[in-house]
UniProtKB/TrEMBL annotation:
SUPFAM superfamilies: TrkA C-terminal domain-like (SSF116726). Its main location: membrane. It is found in: Membrane. Keywords: Membrane, Repeat, Transmembrane, Transmembrane helix, Transport. The keyword Magnesium does not apply. It comes from Azospirillum rugosum. It holds the Pfam family TrkA_C. Gene3D superfamilies: Regulator of K+ conductance, C-terminal domain. This is Di/tricarboxylate transporter. It comes from the Bacteria.
Amino acid sequence: MTLDQAYAFGIIGAVIALLIWDRLRYDLVAMLALLVAVGVGIVKPDEAFRGFSDDIVIIVASALVVSAAVGRSGIVEEAMRPLSGRMKTVPAQIIVLTGAVTLLSAVVKNIGALAIFMPIALQVARRNNTSVSSLLMPMAFGSLLGGLMTLVGTSPNIIVSRLRTEMVGEPFSMFDFTPVGLVIAVAGVAFLTVGHRLLPKGRKAASGAAGFSIDDYTAEVRLPETSPFVNKTVADLEAFGEGDVTVAAVIRERHRRYVPSGHWVLFAGDVLVLEADTQALADIVKYAGLELMHEKALEGVESDEDLAVIEAVVEPRSALVGTTVEDVSLRERYGVNLLALSRRGRPIRQRLRRVRFQLGDLLVLQARASGLSETLSALGCLPLAERDLAIGRVRKRWLALTVMVVTIALVATSTVPVVLAFFGAAVAMTALRVVTLKEAYDAIEWPILVLLAALIPVSEALRTTGGTELIAGWLSMAAQGLPPIGALALMLVAAMAVTPFLNNAATVLVMAPIGASLANHLGLRPDAFLMAVAVGAGCDFLTPIGHQCNTLVMGPGGYRFGDYWRLGLPLSIIVVVLGTAAIALFWPLRAG
């Protein structure tokens, strides 16, 4: 092993260790790795930033904008409406919802496809008294399976295609992934339709069968003249509750309803909507001299003052991630009350004002109904309720569909390069105002782009120093005595094992050159091994942290960390067995 190879291995090892440690964000880790690689001399200074101009970065960014445009157009929800009333049994619900997510994930980013269907799934679960935990994990896994079917279905496919150009002189085309991906996806959805029984029974999602049970947290109380809090402020009452009670609304003049700020003065006869757990509610009613009222629907209020309570999940792009309620001034800046919060299927025990939001947190928010969609979009939260389609957006739906179909046709027929086709589609979606410029920029996951741009030179250094050849030699020794298809399975399993710790995009950047080198060592064609890397990197079913789709459903589904392997392990075995066989069938290991 040379000194440069040792540097390359050390940097990659440090990247993996830092990502497992999870104290630094992955894009910062990638930038640090790039700086160190330049510092030790394995990446030349004039090549340090060439990753930012790589086609991979442009394709991924453009695909994210196109995906957001299709999602916001409402065409998917409109297409699903006729089916929503026919999903009566759990298997029917899983096969329709998971199948739809899987198909959509072939052309839309998988987390975007999942975000579109999660509100639909929750509505279906409520209408049919189905445990939502039976639906959401299969849907998350289906979104990963769907990404295997096309070039733009998932980032690993895009990266593998780009790396193939460097290795064999020609990229994978739009539907080169389809035969293998379709076999795996069909088998995976079929398994998930019956495999949901492997999930723990009787598990509640957050505080209820299909998300938060609002009744457990909301109660109306009257402030009588004898209460010591008459002529005191909302902040005084909330302070008395030691942060466990929120005055979500004040009702006056029998019908007028207000979202109060902390300095609002309370008067005798006010009806207060309190949000708290049962113990905190009982305590404040007893010691603050409040009178419980029978809960009832609040009607007769003016629309501009109406309140809405909605469940939502913190998305990856959310500005809330890493902040607290006080940091973002939810009430003052957004006019929103945080009523409850659940993380990974369990209530947060500490005071809500001190909790730092994380990806996948399940929130119960209360705000004015008017402008609620815009508020949630500004917060970066996914509403867990069936969304009403905006009036007058029918034309936008058809524009989005037309642009998407034309783009796929151009790529499939090789009329224009993939990068130009999807860049043009992103520009068209914005120019036609299917998405606004702000929505387009918000849809781009900048940390992922920085990760890719920074790691491209580092992964290239691993190859140019001979590190990939060295690892391929070790793997070829491990594969001695195995048939070629056994070596292919070994490559797929290795990529699948590394992905939870290294991020799927980074896994491909590191493992694809190793796979191609292993094929050369064994005298086999590299295409099959590149496909194996793409499949392995796209399939992480064992943990909630390896992929954002898995994290996103954890809170709403009420899942625990250990629940994922119950369903994910047999699915992973199916992927390895069928994936290896399908790759060997459609991409022969030997020439001729």
